[in-house]
Amino acid sequence: MHEKNLKLLILLIFLTFITNCTTSKPIVITTWTFVNASVAAWEELKDGGIALDAIQKGASVCEEQQCDGTVGFGGSPDEDGETTLDALLMDGKTMNVGAVGALRRIKNAVGVARHVLENTKHSILVGSQATQFAMQMGFHEESLTTPESKKLWSTWANENNCQPNFWMNVKPNPNKYCGPYHNHMSKERIRHMEVDRYNHDTIGMVAIDKNGDIAAGTSTNGAKFKIPGRVGDSPIPGSGAYADNEVGAATATGDGDIMLRFLPSFLAVEEMRRGSSPTDAAQTAIRRIEKHYPEFMGAVIALNKDGEYGAACHGLQGLPFPFVVYDNSHDMYKIHTVNCV
């Protein structure tokens, strides 16, 4: 009997070991249905590549393919008709960050973010100075405007009289007229800016490689018709994305001007650190925002260091939030959905 119990104990230890090895298999998770980005990242991971490279590769694909018109060049023109880009990479092994905000005239924003991470002691570079840095790193300067983004802006400015926009408490009344605007404490009712996946959208990615190292990243062209100079949540560590090898990673997408006030990705990771499941952690982050802004639209994905994942969303007009998972458990990627809280 004693020998039998000993054999059972050895078997249990062996199965536990196998399970732990299995949960450290490579995995990448991507917001929305950006399948091509997920496939590109998985190709990097399955061949033994590191998580940071996989995130960069996947986000770069979305920048090139202009995913949903909300990532990369030629989308979401600002009030002046210019497209600018935000991107972030975070290394959960070193806790290092590289990001760019309001990047002008450079297509590969996440590539520039990687150089900020690896070639500077800074975390974020913005605007025209970020463009100068990118050119020093060998990137080509070019217009990010396309015929489609020109038409989008022209319709907004000329046919729709600059509606909707992001101004408030100014003259002339921004609910009726274009600018230029001047400071004025108006009592006009503020018109709600409709937000959906095609306006405030981001590719957010989280990944674990074969070594168990974790990374997260984002890329976006921001909100349509934003005030020039606006930087959203995507390049802000802890807001757009966050990663920590000791716990896991999270990424967020949605109404960035609201979401960045709550650092939802950081909150989700910290909730997992306290023992919450990824789903519960994501729900906590979403509910924290919803408590103060019940009309906001957004979603959070959380991934713990064991490869367990979950998501939560709010305000998608009755639709579920989709995200893509690619790991060794299937021959190809799988699109999951979650109903919003």
TrEMBL record:
It is an enzyme of class 3 (hydrolase). Keywords: Autocatalytic cleavage, Hydrolase, Protease, Signal. GO terms for molecular function: N4-(beta-N-acetylglucosaminyl)-L-asparaginase activity; peptidase activity. The record marks D201, T202 as: Cleavage. Residues 1-24 form the signal peptide. Its EC number is 3.5.1.26. Transmembrane segments: none annotated. Belongs to the Ntn-hydrolase family. Cleaves the GlcNAc-Asn bond which joins oligosaccharides to the peptide of asparagine-linked glycoproteins. This is N(4)-(beta-N-acetylglucosaminyl)-L-asparaginase.
